[in-house]
Write a structure and sequence with these properties.
With about 210 residues, the protein is mainly alpha-helical. It has one domain: Arp2/3 complex 21 kDa subunit ARPC3 (Orthogonal Bundle), CATH 1.10.1760. It has eight helices and two strands. A hairpin with a 2-residue loop joins strand 1 and strand 2. Helix 1 crosses helix 3, helix 2 packs parallel to helix 5 and helix 2 packs across helix 6. The radius of gyration is 18 Å and the shape is globular.
Length: about 210
C-alpha cells in the first residue's frame, strides 16, 4: 500500500493517521466498559494506536518531527472540540429529536476536557522523548524501547487524566486501580501488536528519503 511512497511522503500519512485516531478516541472515550472487575473508557480501544504511531515517528523521524505531529494533533483536537460545542449551541429545528443524545456524545465537561488535553500532551511527549533517548543508549533493543516508552507515556497519561478528571469524585483506591488498569491495558495492547510495530518501523526505515 505504501511501497511507492518516500519516507517524507509517509510522514504526512502517519500524521493523518495519528490525528484521526486521536479525535476518534476522544469521541468514544465518553462511554465506558467493564473489563473483568475494572471499568475503562472505550477510548482505550484505539488510543494505543496513537502511541504505536508515536513510536514509529520518534524512531524513524526523531523527536522534533514527532513533537510537531503531537502538537498538530492537539491543535486539531481543539478545533474539533470547538466545532462540537458550536454545533451543540446552535438551535436545532423542531423535527430534530436527537439533540440531547448528540450533546451527550460530543459534549464534554470543562474538567474532563482539560484532563484529556493535559494527559495527551504529557503522555505523548514523554513517550516520544523517552523513545529517542533510549535509542541513543540501546539502539538494538527496539522491543524494550517501544514498551518502556509506552509504559511511561501511558502511565503518565493515565495519572494526569484520571486525577484531573475524577479526583474527589470517587474513593482514592478506585482512582489508583483505574490508573493501573488503564496503563497496563494499553501497554499490553502494544505488546500484542509489537510485531506489526516492528514491521512498520523496519519498512519505513528502508524507504527512500
Amino acid at each position: 500500500m505504501f511501497d511507492n511512497l518516500t519516507k517524507t511522503e509517509l510522514y504526512a500519512t502517519l500524521t493523518g493517521i495519528f490525528t484521526a485516531c486521536l479525535i476518534v478516541s476522544n469521541i468514544i472515550a465518553g462511554k465506558t466498559f467493564d473489563f473483568y472487575s475494572f471499568t475503562l473508557p472505550c477510548g482505550v480501544v484505539i488510543f494505543p494506536v496513537i502511541y504505536i504511531v508515536n513510536d514509529v515517528l520518534a524512531e524513524v523521524y526523531g523527536y522534533k518531527k514527532a513533537r510537531n505531529v503531537i502538537l498538530l494533533g492537539f491543535f486539531m483536537n481543539l478545533v474539533a472540540v470547538v466545532c462540537y460545542n458550536i454545533t451543540i449551541w446552535l438551535p436545532a429545528p423542531a423535527f430534530f429529536e436527537n439533540s440531547q443524545a448528540f450533546s451527550i456524545v460530543l459534549g464534554s465537561t470543562f474538567r474532563l476536557l482539560i484532563a484529556s488535553f493535559a494527559a495527551y500532551l504529557c503522555g505523548s511527549l514523554v513517550n516520544a522523548k523517552l523513545m529517542v533517548y533510549l535509542k541513543s543508549k540501546a539502539e538494538d533493543k527496539l522491543f524494550f524501547r517501544c514498551i518502556a516508552s509506552t509504559l511511561a507515556g501511558e502511565g503518565l497519561d493515565a495519572v494526569v487524566f484520571i486525577f484531573i478528571g475524577f479526583f474527589a469524585t470517587m474513593p482514592f483506591e478506585a482512582l489508583i486501580l483505574m490508573i493501573i488498569a488503564q496503563a497496563l491495558f494499553k501497554t499490553v495492547y502494544e505488546i500484542i501488536v509489537y510485531p506489526a510495530t516492528r514491521y512498520v518501523i523496519g519498512h519505513v526505515k528502508a524507504l527512500p528519503e
